[in-house]
Every structure is written in C-alpha cells, then in structure tokens.
Amino acid sequence: MAATGQSQSTASSGAAIYFAILGIVTTAFGLADILVTAAGSEFGYGILEIPNDIFRGGWGGLIVLSAGLFYLSGTRNIGDIHQFAKVAMGSILIWIMAGCDIFAMITESIPGGEDGPWLNTLPGFLEVYASPYAPAVLLLPFSLVVIYYIYQRK
Amino acid sequence: MTLGLEERWTLIDRISKATVTFGKYEHTLKDAIGELTVKPLTGIPVAIAILYGFWSVFGSFAGTLCTDGFFVKLFDGYWLPWIQEAFPGQGDLLYRILVDAGGIDSGEFVLSDNCFEAFGALTSGLFVAIGVVLPAIVIFYLMLALLEDVGYMPRLAVLIDTMLHKIGLHGYAIVPTILSLGCNVPGVAATRILETKKQRFIMMTLLAIFIPCGAQIGIMEKVVPDLLGWILLYLLIGYFIFGYILNKIVPGRAPEFLIDVPPYRRPLLGNIAKKVGGRIRGFFTVALPFVMLGCAIVSVLYLLGVIQFLGDLLAPIFVNWFGVPAETAGPLVAAFLRKDLAVAQLSVIEMTEYQMITAVVLVSIYFPCVATFAMMLKEGWKELLGALAALVVVVFAYGGLIHLIGILLGVA
Amino acid sequence: MKVLLMGHPNVGKSVFFNRLTGANVTESNYPGTTVDYTKGWMKIEGEDVELVDVPGTFSLDPKDKAEDVAVAMLHETKDAKVITVIDASKIERGLYLALEIIEEGYPVVIALNMWDVAWDKNIRIDARNLEKILGVPVVPTTAISGEGIKELVSRLKSAKPVEVDDIIANAGGLT
Asked: For testing the chain B interface, which of A63, A69, A137 should be mutated: the one with the most B CBs within 10 Å?
C-alpha cells in the first residue's frame, strides 16, 4: 500500500512539473497571440508564426491563454481528480484550437483555387501543410501527453 | 385511492430505503470535467472555445471548401455561361425571370458575369440555395447534433442562465435560441419547453426578430464576411435590450426553473446522421422551392415596376430614418420570401460599409420568413399579432437607433 | 392495446420509442426534445400495439405547455398501459411520477433506465425487491445500447392496476 502510494506521488510530481512547464509556455503563446494581434504587427520565428487577425489571434489567443491558465491552476496537487480535470481541460482547449487550424488547412488544400483545376495539384496540396504553424498546432503534440496520464489513473 | 404530497414522499422514502443502496460516490474524470464546464469561472472560457470551434469549422467547411472552393467555380464558370446560351429568347420576359435579368448598357441587353447579379430563379436562386445555404446548413446541424448528443447544451444553459434571467427567461431559452440559428421554425416549436405564456411570447418574438437563421448567416459569411461580426453584435445587443423591455411590459410571470444536467455521453453516429439527414430533406422540400420562387417573384415585381414604386414611396423613410439607399426597398420585399436571397441582393447595391451593416441588420429583424410566420400562427394568432406589433416597433426603433449611433460615430 | 411512454424530461423515452417502433423521432441529450406526442406501432406476440411517445413531465400537475400535452394524453386514454421510464440514478423523483400514475389506476411497467449511469455512480437498486413492493413489473434498462428492452416489452402483458394500499402495506406502512 505504501509502495503504490509512493510511486503514485512520484508519477504525479512528474506530471506536475511537466504540465507546469507546458502551462507557462502555453500562457506565453496566448499572450503573444493577443499582443501581436493588438499591435497589428507580424511575428514569425522558425516554424512558428503568430496569427494576427482578430479571429484567430484575438479570440483564439484568448483561448490559448485560457488553456495555459487551466494547466497552471491544475498543477498544484495534480493527484486530485478536480485538479487533474483542469489539466485535461487545458489540453481539450488546445485540441479545439489546433483542430480548427488543421481543419482550416485541410479545407484550404483540397480545391484548386479560382483559376486552377477542380482539385489542387499535389505540390499545391502539400504546400498548405508546410511550416510555419500557429502556436496551438505546435503545442498539440505536447498536450497529448495528458492522454497517458488519463490511462494511468484508471 | 390517492395519496397526499407528504404521504407520497414518505412512501417513496420507505421504498427507496428498502431497495436502493448508495455506494461511496467517487468523482470520475468525466464528472470533474462536467463541473468545470458549468462553473462560471472555468465554464466561460470553455464556452468561448467551443463557440470558436463551431465558428471556425463552419467557416472552413461552408465558406472555404464548399462555396469558394467548388460552387462558385461550378456556377459562375460552367452553369451560368451554359444556361445563358442554352436558354432561348435572350432578353425576353421569361429569360429575365428564370435566367438573367441582365442590365442595359447603352441601349443593349448585357449578360451578367456571375450568379450573384443574374437574379434569375435558375441562376441566383439555385446558386444561393445550393452553393451557399446548403453547405452552411449541413455543417451547422452536424455540429449542433454533436453538441446536443454529447450533452453540452444543458451545461451551456446553466452557464447562461443568469444572463437570460435579466430578460425574463431562464437558461433553457438558449436551446430555442441556438436551434433558431439553424432555422427559426424548430426554434419556435422548442419554445414550448418554457413554462408561462409570457416567456413563450417573449422568446418567440425575440427569435423571429433578432436571431438570423443558418441560411442568412451562410450568405452573410459569403457576401459581407468583414461586417459579419458587427452585424451579429448589433443583433445580439438588440436581443438583450428588447428582451429586457418586453420582460418589463408584457404582463405575467417568469418563474425560476431547475435544469437537469444529463451526463456527458459518447454521441451515436446513427442518431446524428438521422438528425442531419432530416434537416437536409427539409431543406430540399421547403427551402429550395421558396428560394427559387422568391427569385422569380422578385424579378417579376422588378419588371412590373412594383419595386420601383415601393422604393419611391418608402424612400424618404429608408433614406432619412434608417440612412440606407432607396434601392434597398427591393431586397426588403424579397426578404419576406427568403432572407438569404435578400442579403445576396443587398450585396450588389452600392453603399457604404455602415449602410450595409444597417441594411443587413434591417433585413434580419424585419418580418419573419413565411415558414416561421406559419409556425407562429400555429402557436396562436394572438401571440402572432403581438409579436408583429412588437416587430414593427422594434424595426423602427432599432433601425433608427443604429442610424443614430452611426451619425454619432460619424460614419453614417 | 395502447401503450404510453411517460417519464421525466430527458430520461430516454424517445430512445425507447425509436427502438420499439423503428420510427424516426429526434433524440437529443437535453431535456425537452419532445414537445408534442408522437404515435407509432409495434408488434408484441403478433398483436398490433400503438405506442405513444409522451413529452416529459415531472408530475401529473402540469407546469408548462409540453407537460399539459403529457397529462392530457394520459387522461384521454383511460384504457392505456403506461411504461414509466425512470432515471435509475435519480430514482426517488421518478417513483413520485410512477406512484401518481399507479394511483390513478393505470397498469404500469417501470423501466429503470440509465442503469449504466447509476452503476457508474455506485448506486445499486434491488429491482426484484422494488417489484415486490410496488407489485408492478420493474425492468433495469439502458435504452441507448438496447439492454433490457426485450424484457420490458415481454413484461407489458403482466402489467395490471395496483392498489396503493397494497404498496403501503408492502413497504411496511407509512409511520
């Protein structure tokens, strides 16, 4: 009994550290989205591009920010189900954002464009999926870690 | 024999003591997430995110993929030139009604080069119905069915309850409201879950006036995408202002209501397919004929000079009171048949951005479409008359108010 | 024979209705989807049975228009049998409605629906004992996956009116 308690607490402290870091990064991305949009400027670095339209950058940035705050508020005492639910919710918000971004890419990649053929050419199709990506898409793989912890709880 | 209230509960207590054992209730992750979606502090960000997702998928699917990706090309590039050639009697009466009203340029009849301006039943009518409205309706009902079956809707109702209480409705009013965003007809039917006559009347009136249906939103997203946010904002503000006023002046009571929140469930694919399928069938049998008929009737009215006459007659009101061009009279007549068509017609009239916002808001709040009208009549003619009276007042008051705001902002 | 499906809003009446009649009534995971009644037919042992999907109601004392429809429907069809659908995780509230219907002399079958949800919440109900006390058939069901529906239908014929005095006696009196 003591041994399982021990291993559980190490697992949850690992989770706490992981999601704390993810939370900080997510919060920073959310703030960046909002600030870049508010300033009306453009920002890209490597494979990252901050969206700056009012819908994806402003409204969307608010959601990324909320996701970050969900992560951060859930990390304390993460073993508790209600706290862990906040972390899970943070990931769900990221999935919504990233899902919408990816769905938008898919819908953009299929048609051939105004003067082109009906369907897009293969290079044109692939080009849509090339970097840079929005923050939520970059955060997506890291947010999936929560699934591992959900199964571990069961 | 029947029992009194007290006795019945005592009996139930006895029975349940004998038959039910409550084990230690452990919160599952599902429950905990469920709670997060209901508490305001955490629930509001979640609602904002879900709304974002709804909107984003709606725009990507209906706008980017279907309408802009394929239908514009199909209708403008292939269908329009083909039927302009194939249909006999270019410039004739029937040709103008069914295919292309065209324009007169230095005395000669000129063909239109896109389906928005052709105004024929077989061109604009078909394009608006199938190219723009159909994809919007498909994706809207698909997402709505998903949210319904998962069990998010009642949670949204709980979250919004406080806000809606201010206008004399309980959180459940969100269900008719959201249904109305798809089509006002099922929205009006759903008002029956509200308890008092007063609540039903307020809800029905607000739905008919301020909630644009999926068809309207779809077409707005296509023709005035940049102004859509403003238009919806004006409608939302109107919904609350007039809801508040109606709550104050309509006699009756608006009692509290306890909402049952069902558990989150995995949605069943078959059920969702069935719901969406039903809506699409409804679209083809009801909406499609209306759009085409509306197109034809409007063309006839134009050709007969009726629209010109009404426009001249109403021009002082339109220009002075609402601050929109006199030409908008035509679309407003058409709006009685199909509002989506009216928005499409507005989009080709030349006017400033603010006038466009005003005009589209006016089309939305002006008379409910025929189908909604019939549905409201089914709910009671007194209510219908009351709603129409409210509508006339609202159109003038709110239309004037928007104009006034425009003047104050210096944009009208 | 005529059978009414009654119960609180959102306990799954429409799901039963669709499963039993193969009809196309809209089901949603929120209360108040059914605001008007729908009729359909099913066959039980060769006999045609009319089934009515009644809007959800909390009691026989109507509070809104949809509940009006429900109560009027019940009172119009005096010879009907009633399947009372109860949310097994909120059994007491459901029993209230069931008792009201029993008291009016209708033959009742009780479907303890959402059995899976009650199970998840660690609520255990002794359905046999409940059946013994009430004197009407009680069947645990999970309508959405179809569990217990067959049994529910097969028990319909054994539904008969019950005197509430007998129930009180079976429960060990009221005091």
From this structure: A63
Mean pLDDT in residue range A120-149: 90
Contact C130, B21 (CB under 8 A): no
CB A27 within 8 A of CB A72: yes
Q: Is C83 helix (H, G, I), strand (E, B) or coil?
A: strand
Bridge partners, residue C5, by sequence: C53, C83
Domain count within chain C: 1
Q: What is the pLDDT of residue A7?
A: 47
Write out pLDDT tens, residues C134-170.
999 999 988 877 788 888 888 888 888 888 888 888 8
- Token digits of residue B17: 């003591």
Task: Give the CATH number for residue C124.
Answer: 3.40.50.300
Phi, psi at B251, each rounded to 5°? -70, 160
Above 0.85 for ipTM, yes or no? yes
Please name the residues in contact with B333: beta carbons below 8 A apart, sequence gap of 6 or more: B298, B301, B306, B307, B310
* Cβ contact C153:C44 at 8 Å: yes
Mean pLDDT of all residues belonging to chain C? 83
Residue-range definition of the domain harbouring residue C57: 2-171
- Here the tokens at position A103 are 């769905």
Mean pLDDT of B259-280: 78
C124: β partners: B21
Q: What pLDDT is recorded for position A145?
A: 93
Quick check: helix, strand or coil at residue C141? coil
Residue B237 burial by CB count (10 A; 0-12/13-18/19+): exposed, middle or buried?
middle
Contact status of B2 with chain C (Cβ, < 8 Å):
yes
Which residue of chain C is at minimal alpha-carbon distance from B198? C64
**How many angstroms away from the CA of B47 is the closest CA of chain A?**
10
Q: Which domain holds residue B369?
A: 32-255+277-409
Exposure on the CB side of residue B196, measured as CA atoms within 13 A: 15
Let me know if residue B282 belongs to a domain: yes
How many domains in chain B? Answer: 1
What's the CA dihedral at C93, C97, C102, C104 to 10 degrees? Answer: 150
A104–B56 CB contact, under 8 Å: yes
- Say if B62 falls within a structural domain: yes
Contacts of A84 in chain B (CB under 8 A): 29, 32
* Residue B90 belongs to some domain of the structure: yes
